[in-house]
Amino acid sequence: MRRYAWVIASIGATAAAQDTTDKSLALTIYNSDLALVEHVRPLTIPAGSHRLEFQGVSAQIMSQTVSFAGAGLTVIEQNFDYDLLTPEKLMEKAVGQRVRIVRTNPGTGRETEETAEVLSTVGGVVLKIGERIEVLREDGIPARVIFDEVPPNLRASPTLSILVNAARPANGDVTLAYLTRGLSWNADYVAVFEEAAGNVSMQGWITLTNNSGTTFANATAQLVAGDINVVGNEAEWWQAYNFRRDRANVLRAGGVESSSREQLADYYVYPLAAATTIANNQTKQVSFLTAERVRANRGYEQTFYSFYSQDEPVSSEVRVRFSNSRSSGLGDQLPSGVVRVYARDARGQPQFVGEDRIGHTSAGSELALKIGDAFDVTIQPTLRQTTRATRRATDYAMSYLVRNARSEPITVTIRQDSLWRFNEVIAQSLEGRRTDADSFAWDVPVPANGETELTFTIRQSW
Amino acid sequence: VSAPAKAWLVSAAVFAALGARAQDEVAVYSARADSVAVTIYRDDLALVTETRTVDLPAVPVTLVIEDVVETLLPQSAVIAGAARVLAESNFDFDRLTPRSLLERSIGETVMITRTNPATGTVTRTAATILAVGDGVVLQSGAGTEALYCSGLPERLELMRAPDELLAKPRLSVQLAGGEAGPRTVEVSYLAHGFAWSSDYVAHLDADSDALRLAGWATLTNTTGSVFEQAEMQLVAGRLNILAAEEGGSAAEPVVARDGESDVEARDRLVRERAASDAALLRDCFAMDIPVPAPRAEELLTLFAAQEGVDGRLRMAQAVVVEANRLQREELGDYQLYRLPWRTDLAARQTKQVLFLDEPAVRVERFYGFRLASLTTPPAADVVIPNLIVSFENTERDGLGEPLPSGIVRVFEQHAGREVFAGEAAIGDRPVGLPVELVIGRAQNVMLEVTMESSRGGDRGVGVTTQHRIVNNKGVPIDLEIRHGVESHYLDLTLERTSRPMRRKYGDLAWRFAVPPGEALLEYELTAREP
Fold it and tell me: Chain B contact for A153, CB < 8 A?
């Protein structure tokens, strides 16, 4: 583990490092690739101006969000140094400086050393050796370039430097806070679906990812759930719109139960119980929810958005339905995340059967996760006839042949969606129901290893 | 890994796990699984279930599960049988690369070995790594230098293994305290780099109209992990799997080039990434002469002896055909095929297993032609119908087995020889759903289609269609003609027809026998435009 230190340099004086550790390190991580980092450290400095160098801050720090606070200290200037130490930067900063060139004679192997002045580094390194002007290694002869020192502004890790003025000698705690990208979290759920028992057991994990370039050691962390508005994301509105549509498909009824979780404004906060170390490039998971035997069932449904015939039948969607209400056994709000569903095979081994994403879901909501398409349940749509009823009304006679190759009877919900503004069912083989201003649904019972044909005629007009 | 190096890594890991905070926390290591089961899905995904025996003390414990598959999706992990509350789980894996080694060695003392190209004299100089980014900067007694920029053969030697560099990926979970004793823990997780596909071989008997249908499952392990005596399962059906950017389990798609298999494409990607990574390490200040780009393999051999990295990059593709036949069972709404006994699945191995073999499926052979529009005639004056093989997927007709999606290749006996008759793709087909395979085009069967349209009152359209069929095969054939009508036409009516019509998939359809010679079909349709 690397240590990060305050390097304190009084103006005009040589730098003196004070190897102090954080008194506390606090992280507030949002689930939109954003985190607030707050360090509290003791600092002892005499009166006057000082440059405080804070090494090893996140490489993705949003430097315009840095705030520094300490009793009696005034910030004069702050810089975030992105100039990382590379061979190219080293040479660029050496323009006008002297370097040593060590050449190896390819014939004799003899080494010779000369001092050169770097004139330019654009497109090739131009050197002045004595009165000669040369381009480095133009002759292809091996030549080492030795620099006497590393320029002070080139660093091995990103560094934040703050120029402060202390009115009097300071001896107390200072706080450095900033927003950074590269730290984020999301919720992941593992749901084991016990079909026979009619329940699902859920474990919620908070998955923390740290791609900030920095390891945060011994930090207290809290996670905030909720969509924080971040300026500059408007271009993604269409994506977001589609996403919400999909999400609405999973959420069947919004919940009204309140949760005992800690709240921050309109967001939920999940504090992590103990201080934790989040290493760079690490994926860390913290359990935040366990619910055993939540009532659940499996259902088949398929939505059709227009009237058409198809040679190839459609496999019906399979959904696992449950509620996060108190009465069903869950009773907690669920932050947005992916639910991975497992079911048991004939030997009782858990097998993965599909996944779906849920949005931030308040407690008491009804959910229907689409886990996949049923192999053995297919629906063949056939448009039987279109008839002109009046000048502005058309009748569509549809048939849906539902086949069930399973050895048990099932019910498949067929929904006809996105109808014209005026619509009515004028004939049906089975009693359906209106689900929306522009949709109807039928629950079609299908016997084991059998088929049922649903037929109906919808009149629509404008 | 050599034994002392491994011991060193383990003790470093213990130290890291203990950390500065919880000195009282105990770590328990599980080096390998007792047994493993692999379920392969269609979508570059597998569920790996490992059974491990661990001895847990009564205190809270960090269970370190070593040597898991490197493509593991940590958020999918399920740990059962520990009889403890799970608090936290960490997945740590820094792929062992020259870069990760150097990055972890910043501030450490290393040896630079230079060889004088003329005399062959080797000089070793101690130096400290200052920075590893686009290029490497070192500090030695002489001053500050850039590595790989002098044109001299240069090599770095690390004096000690860097902290926490994990040669093998591991999952560590924090368990609450509980009853002490040995436990059998089951660790399940999803991992990428696995695939399976199904292919069918159909032998058509010309005389009896019977088909011998064999189904082969081809499964591939493109990861570097070896599974010994594993239980193997395959799942057929379409699972809902979300894209990685949505937080789902789908793997990033790999685009294979021409003539490249998916395995090869994946290998190429790994090599390209390693090469660009290695090239970045050699970044230098501008020089007038071109620096030869290093080959990834060249750089990696440096470390290969230590960890066998090049072994993972090598392309070794062996196809193994299993003698066993898969057994099928239902898994929720999918089909699960189980290999009846345990098998070894090596790294980068492809295996083929039979999952279906039905000796006599009753088939029908017919010729088919479809018009896709009410009023538009076919583009050509003379059209050739398709050759279609169809069968009912029922036990009565010799099949009655679910057919996972794949390509069916049909072979036929011709003059005492097997000839390839054509191929067709099928989607997932449950039992009871009829199957029609368009395997090719007819020979010596032709159709001439003439259409005549007329206008009626009140936006009416009338179309008379005539099909003249020529059968030069010398034997009677079965022909199906379909006429599809766009759904915007209203009040479609068949006014008259020369042969009986029935509906098929929403189309109007005629099926009849055509004797050698000529036959005619004529009908009139009327409809209204909206």
Answer: no
Confidence of residue A263 (pLDDT cuts 50, 70, 90): low
Q: Does A410 have pLDDT greater than 90? A: yes
Q: Work out the number of other CB atoms within 10 angstroms of the CB of residue B442.
A: 21
Interface of A with B in 159-178 (CB under 8 A): none
Q: What DSSP character marks residue B277? A: H
Which of A97, A208, A285, A288 to substitute to test the interface with B, most B CBs within 10 Å? A285
Question: Got the DSSP string for A199-213?
Answer: EEEEEEEEEEEE-SS
Q: What is the pLDDT of residue B476?
A: 94
Confidence at residue A16, expressed as pLDDT on a 0 to 100 scale = 43
pTM of the model: 0.79
Residues B347/B223, Cβ–Cβ less than 8 Å: yes
Contact assessment for residue B176 and residue B85, using Cβ atoms and an 8 Å cutoff: yes
Inform me whether the pLDDT recorded for B19 exceeds 70: no
**B503 and A382 in contact by Cβ < 8 A?**
yes
Mean pLDDT of B405-427: 87
Question: In this structure, are residues A363 and A332 in contact, taking their beta carbons and an 8 Å threshold?
Answer: yes
The Cα–Cα gap between B293 and B296 comes to 9
Token pair, residue A183, equals 């730290």
- At residue B317, the pLDDT reads 40
Strands B194-205 and B327-331: unpaired
Buried b or exposed e, range B55-81, using 16+ CB within 10 angstroms: ebeeebbbbbbbbbbbbbbbbbbbbee
Interface test with A, best of B21, B48, B75, B494 (most A CBs within 10 A): B75
Sort out which chain A residues have CB atoms less than 8 A from B289's CB and list them: 137-138, 140
Would an 8 Å CB–CB cutoff place B335 in contact with chain A? Answer: yes
Six token digits for residue B501? 């019509």
Residue A345's CB: how many other CB atoms inside 10 A? 20
Q: A150 to chain B nearest CA, in Å?
A: 7
**Would you state the structure tokens that stand for residue B312, as one six-digit string?**
């993972």
Ranges assigned E (strand) in B326-394: 327-331, 334-338, 343-345, 349-362, 364-371, 382-383, 386-391
Burial A23-37 (b: 16+ CB within 10 A, else e): eebbbbbbbbbbbbb
Band of pLDDT at residue A225, cut at 50, 70 and 90: confident
Question: Can you say whether residue B396 is alpha, beta or left, with left for phi > 0 and alpha for psi between -120 and 50 degrees?
Answer: alpha
Residues B192/B44, Cβ–Cβ less than 8 Å: yes
In chain B, the residue whose alpha carbon lies closest to the alpha carbon of A399 is B506
> What is residue B308's predicted lDDT score, i.e. its pLDDT?
35
Q: Does position B1 have pLDDT exceeding 50, yes or no?
A: no
Which single residue is written with the structure tokens 């991975």? A340
CA A193, CA A199: separation in Å to the nearest integer?
6
Residue B244 touches chain A, beta carbons under 8 Å: no
For residues A439 and A432, the answer to whether their CB atoms sit within 8 Å is no
Look at residues B97, B203, B127 and name the one whose alpha carbon lies nearest to residue B439.
B203
- The interface predicted TM-score of the complex, written ipTM, equals 0.77
pLDDT, tens digit, for every residue of A21-37?
678 889 999 877 889 99
Cβ–Cβ < 8 Å for B284, A133: no
Report the candidate in A187, A281, A176, A268 with the shortest Cα–Cα distance to residue A228: A268
- Calpha distance B30→B67 (Å, rounded): 9
| Separation between Cα atoms, residue A201 and residue A199, nearest integer Å | 7
Would the pLDDT of A228 be above 90? no
DSSP string, B435-495: EEEEEEE-SSEEEEEEEEEEEETTTEEEEEEEEEEEE-SSS-EEEEEEE---TT-EEEEEE
Which of A92-96, A226-230, A381-385 is the least confident region?
A226-230
Amino acid at B396: R
